[in-house]
RNA sequence: UCCUCGAUAGCUCAAUGGUGGAGCAACCGGCUGUUAACCGGUAGGUUGCAGGUUCGAGUCCUGCUCGGGGAGCCA
């Protein structure tokens, strides 16, 4: 008797109707009556479960009727059309073998659990509908990202996880060291002597692959990175994690508008891919997590993203009747409340904000003609906030060096980065997309801890 | 790190400073097409931890731990 994946039955039911099949999976629920009963069986291959019907003809009928949630069974029977309304077909069991009987103190029940509770059982939560949907989508979207860039001729670059660059400037870093924490070697003036450490210098986990990515961009023209990123910020919010995944494309012979066009094309591609490839999961998200999800996503696929300069955004905010907690003034960064107002109230769709003051942005962003702003862009989306941050890079060696001097950065630390400008440097641009924030946006999940299998946040590294 | 709210049965939540309850889950039974099945019954508790006030604390006070929401930082 052929063993079948439940996904294949749902996708090609004609092939299986009326035929004997063997299924192996876990019991999601049992409803038993006097002489027969129903089992919802999920084998993990598909979002939906398959209904198994069993009756007293089974030798072990009583045992089966008392099956507990998450017990594993093997069922042999005939696939038939179902008289019930909620499923198109069902398996009429002729034989059910119990592979693993689950104890009754199983923490998941046939009811809604809070996200907070499920986070405490991160090893079991992928068995729930919500997490089954979210994490299958996460897998599909990772694949879709590779497809999007590969179809366009981008080269996938594995930038290093361990970095010796101590000033990437994107936040607090996790130190990587093999020195003894209790008694590290010291230099003559009492400082820790990192020359005796594994790499002979201070090293950390990467906060961004961008600088390395630029080197490969200026060889391959179009590249992207996709890997884990680490930030040791003591930040406790629904959209920050200490370990997360980031996508960082970088394109040569390109300006900021090319960068934004790429970001917009990518976002639309990924949304379409999710809707086409995971219709059951997306429908579940739309029904149970975020009622307005489909409408919002469709609106994005169908429309152009908004564009506004930082200076215009400040004017819009200053003219608005909205009462903000923080003052709006040219020169200071936009607060979360300002960003939300722009994307949720003014534009009601994703919006690029460009041309930020140079003083609030990184040293490598290209200085504009006005000498006050840089060619930076942030993509803000409703509900999540900043999902992409990018810029055209400063390709003019003398301007870049001047900026580094102004900011007190040591040029010798960046010698190879500067050589990228010296040897065949050209206009180029790129951005960073937070993978988890993308998943949040596409599923409606509002906490980053619920889109990472085993999230790492401040004070939490369980599992 | 700051502000704010919270922690009571396995889960989700009630309980005026005065005998800690309900729904769901579990367990036992009933039910010939169920759909988070339904109906009846049984059992289930050091009220997050440590102190304090009080005749008496789940409830008030202090500290701590953990969690939610918001902020900063950012993707």
Summarize the model shown.
This protein has 13 helices and 16 strands. By secondary structure, the protein is of the alpha+beta class.
Would you write up a description of this structure?
This protein has 463 residues and is an alpha+beta fold. Helix content is 30%, strand content 24%. It has helices spanning 6-11, 61-65, 115-119, 129-151, 210-220, 256-277, 279-289, 293-302, 310-319, 336-346, 397-406, 415-422, 435-443; strands at residues 20-32, 36-42, 50-55, 72-81, 89-100, 155-156, 162-163, 175-176, 203-205, 222-230, 243-252, 306-309, 351-357, 373-381, 385-392, 428-434. An eight-stranded mixed beta sheet has the order 6-10-11-16-15-14-13-12, sandwiched between helices. The chain has a five-stranded mixed β-barrel with strand order 1-2-3-5-4. A hairpin with a 3-residue loop joins strand 1 and strand 2. It starts with 5 loop residues before the first helix and ends in a 20-residue tail after the last helix. The model has no long low-confidence stretch (mean pLDDT 92). The chain binds one RNA strand of 75 nucleotides through strand 1, strand 2, strand 3, helix 3 and strand 11.
């Amino acid at each position: 008797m052929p063993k079948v994946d439940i996904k294949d039955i749902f996708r090609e039911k004609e092939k299986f109707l009326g035929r004997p099949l063997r299924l192996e999976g876990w019991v999601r629920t049992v409803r038993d009556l006097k002489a027969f009963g129903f089992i919802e069986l999920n084998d993990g291959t598909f979002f939906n479960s398959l209904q198994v019907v069993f009756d007293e003809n089974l030798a072990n009928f009583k045992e089966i009727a008392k099956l507990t949630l998450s017990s594993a069974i093997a069922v042999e029977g005939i696939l038939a059309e179902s008289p019930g309304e909620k499923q198109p077909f069902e398996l009429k069991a002729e034989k059910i073998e119990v592979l693993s009987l689950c104890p009754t103190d199983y923490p998941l029940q046939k009811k809604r659990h809070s996200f907070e509770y499920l986070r405490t059982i991160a090893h079991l939560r992928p068995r729930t509908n919500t997490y089954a949907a979210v994490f299958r989508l996460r897998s599909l979207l990772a694949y879709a990202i590779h497809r999007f860039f590969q179809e366009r001729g981008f080269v996938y670059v594995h930038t290093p996880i361990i970095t010796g660059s101590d000033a990437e400037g994107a936040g607090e870093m996790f130190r990587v060291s093999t020195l003894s924490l209790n008694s590290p070697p010291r230099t003559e003036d009492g400082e820790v002597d990192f020359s005796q450490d594994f790499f002979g210098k201070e090293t950390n986990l990467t906060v961004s692959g961008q600088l390395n990515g630029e080197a490969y961009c200026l060889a391959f023209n179009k590249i992207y990175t996709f890997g884990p990123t680490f930030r040791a910020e003591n930040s406790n919010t629904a959209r920050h994690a200490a370990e997360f995944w980031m996508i960082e494309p970088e394109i040569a012979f390109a300006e900021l508008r090319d960068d934004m066009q790429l970001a917009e094309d990518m976002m639309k591609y990924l949304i379409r891919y999710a809707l086409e490839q995971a219709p059951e999961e997306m429908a579940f998200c739309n029904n149970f997590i975020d009622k307005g999800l489909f409408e919002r996503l469709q609106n994005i696929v169908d429309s152009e993203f908004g564009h506004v300069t930082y200076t215009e955004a400040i004017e819009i905010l200053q003219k608005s009747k909205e009462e903000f907690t923080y003052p709006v003034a040219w020169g200071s960064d936009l607060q979360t409340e300002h960003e939300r107002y722009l994307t949720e109230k003014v534009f009601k769709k994703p919006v690029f904000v460009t041309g930020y003051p140079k003083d609030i942005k990184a040293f490598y962003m290209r200085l504009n003609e006005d000498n006050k702003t840089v060619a930076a862009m942030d993509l803000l989306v409703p509900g999540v906030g900043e999902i992409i941050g990018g810029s055209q890079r400063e390709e003019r060696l003398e301007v870049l060096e001047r900026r580094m001097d102004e900011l007190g950065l040591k040029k010798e630390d960046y010698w190879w980065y500067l050589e990228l400008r010296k040897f065949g440097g050209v206009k180029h641009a790129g951005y960073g997309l937070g993978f988890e924030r993308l998943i949040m946006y596409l599923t409606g999940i509002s906490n980053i801890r619920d889109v990472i299998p085993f999230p790492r946040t401040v004070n939490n590294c369980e599992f």
